[in-house]
Q: What sequence folds into this?
């Protein structure tokens, strides 16, 4: 099957499985992996082998960039210490624990290869945990921890992986040199990302063409990632830094139409990339099993047992470290305890949300040849173990995480709704104050100003008395009914214009012009 037909077939499978996941109320990453497993076992279908450079170049930069773009810097800054504990400390602790256990159980697995395995399975997936937590309405502080961790731990894991592979190929390793190199790689990646973010921001600030601006936006993660990787520093941190910087500047950098178009474009791209990434994980099963069945003295069952053991090590280390990371600062620093207490239920959810994904598999598949041209030590074993860890954590923990959250009573704490209500109230008061100024500046247009005042007064009636609490049920129902009425009016306008087009009274250009205005009215209606 030609490559383009294969890609189209995979996109069709992604759409079908994502739709089925919504109906079954199952997190879509899990169903896509399971669907890929099933498709991979269908006789006659071509085997699809995941190319590591495809993940590191095509999938990783845009996904991390857009995640950072829409992540709240304020929330990440407030949780900086526990995020660093999870994204750096936990990754290194998991790497060491996995290396020790793997070397003890499989003595022929030398230390560099064992540490390479640990680095491969240490970072969590950047999508699965947050997608599940957000869908279930987890408290914002949990989502922030998981988002911040997933943005940074890929860089830690991949840098550790790079050092382990270099040690395996050269036979040389210095802990001090590795530590210094780690700092330089991280700092260099952040510096390049911020520089690219500033440059792109200056370019986009001068653009007034939404398609061109969105094209620049789509190229930005690669503009940060590729130079960083070429210079030997962290391309992952470069993409993340650029995303943070531009996400902060976006409200003043772009106009409303470019922002609306950009968000829609990125949402579609992220869905497709995530869908393809997760379904490709499942499709690797036949290839991995075929490779594992040859060239190794122990049976596949024994290696699957090792995969299960490493999975338990990964899960156990995360549980222990999560409690240390989230509680130790409270023991050492009283101001942390007063400012951000973590309930045991929240810590339990964070400790169980350690799903692994496509980055781990791509790292395993990227294990190079040694200097004499032979395969990396125990390469097939490392790939099989990595695949087992992904399945156990992504499918096992992913399916059980919703049950755990319900069991512990962990749900939305209302913080986002309160902040939204506060922001809406502040915007309304600013608009009313500005209308008072405009009434003096434009006395000939008092009817229009009075109409606008009435609209904002009506909007204020739908806010709670202090403007900071979410609406009660009666106000929510009233607001919903008002939206239904306005939806019906807009739909009638749209139908009338379409009928004129169908009758030949107007052309499509006129239809699209009026349709765009109606679409904006519909968007404003949700405000």
A:
């Amino acid at each position: 099957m030609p490559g383009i037909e294969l890609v189209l077939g995979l996109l069709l499978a992604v759409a079908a499985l994502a739709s089925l996941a919504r109906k079954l109320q199952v997190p879509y990453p899990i169903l896509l992996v399971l669907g890929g497993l099933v498709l991979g076992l269908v006789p006659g279908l071509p085997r699809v082998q995941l190319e590591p450079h495809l993940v590191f170049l095509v999938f990783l930069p845009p996904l991390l960039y857009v995640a950072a773009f829409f992540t709240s810097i304020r929330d990440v800054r407030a949780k900086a210490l526990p995020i660093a504990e999870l994204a750096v400390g936990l990754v290194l602790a998991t790497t060491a624990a996995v290396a020790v256990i793997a070397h003890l159980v499989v003595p022929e697995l030398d230390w560099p290869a064992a540490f390479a395995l640990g680095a491969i399975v240490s970072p969590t997936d950047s999508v699965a945990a947050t997608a599940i937590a957000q869908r279930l309405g987890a408290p914002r502080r949990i989502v922030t921890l998981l988002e911040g961790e997933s943005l940074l731990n890929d860089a830690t894991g991949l840098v550790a992986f790079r050092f382990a592979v270099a040690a395996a190929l050269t036979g040389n390793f210095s802990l001090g040199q590795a530590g210094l190199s780690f700092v330089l790689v991280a700092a260099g990646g952040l510096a390049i990302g911020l520089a690219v973010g500033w440059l792109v921001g200056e370019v986009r600030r001068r653009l007034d063409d939404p398609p061109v601006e969105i094209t620049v936006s789509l190229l930005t993660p690669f503009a940060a990632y590729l130079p960083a990787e070429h210079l030997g520093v962290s391309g992952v941190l470069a993409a993340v830094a650029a995303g943070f910087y531009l996400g902060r500047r976006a409200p003043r950098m772009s106009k409303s139409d470019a922002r609306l178009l950009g968000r829609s474009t990125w949402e579609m791209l992220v869905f497709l990339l995530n869908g393809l990434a997760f379904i490709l994980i499942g499709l690797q099963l036949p290839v991995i099993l075929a490779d594992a069945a040859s060239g190794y003295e122990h049976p596949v069952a024994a290696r699957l047992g090792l995969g299960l053991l490493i999975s338990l090590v990964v899960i156990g280390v995360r549980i222990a470290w999560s409690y240390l990371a989230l509680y130790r600062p409270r023991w050492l620093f009283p101001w942390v305890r007063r400012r951000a207490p973590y309930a045991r239920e929240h810590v339990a959810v964070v400790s169980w949300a350690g799903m692994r994904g496509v980055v781990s598999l791509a790292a395993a598949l990227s294990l190079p040849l040694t200097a004499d041209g032979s395969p990396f030590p125990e390469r097939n074993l490392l790939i099989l173990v990595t695949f087992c860890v992904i399945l156990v954590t992504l499918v096992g923990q992913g399916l059980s995480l919703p049950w755990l959250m319900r069991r512990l009573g962990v749900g939305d704490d209302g913080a986002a709704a309160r902040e939204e209500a506060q922001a809406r109230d502040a915007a309304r008061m600013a608009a009313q104050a500005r209308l008072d100024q405009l009434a003096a500046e434009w006395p000939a247009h008092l009817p229009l100003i009075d109409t606008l005042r009435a609209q904002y007064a009506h909007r204020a009636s739908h806010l709670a008395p202090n403007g900071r609490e979410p609406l009660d049920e009666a106000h929510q129902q009233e607001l919903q009914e008002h939206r239904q009425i306005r939806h019906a009016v807009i739909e009638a306008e749209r139908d009338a214009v379409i009928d004129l087009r169908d009758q030949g009274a107007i052309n499509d250009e006129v239809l699209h012009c009026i349709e765009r205005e109606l679409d904006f009215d519909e968007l404003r209606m949700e405000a």
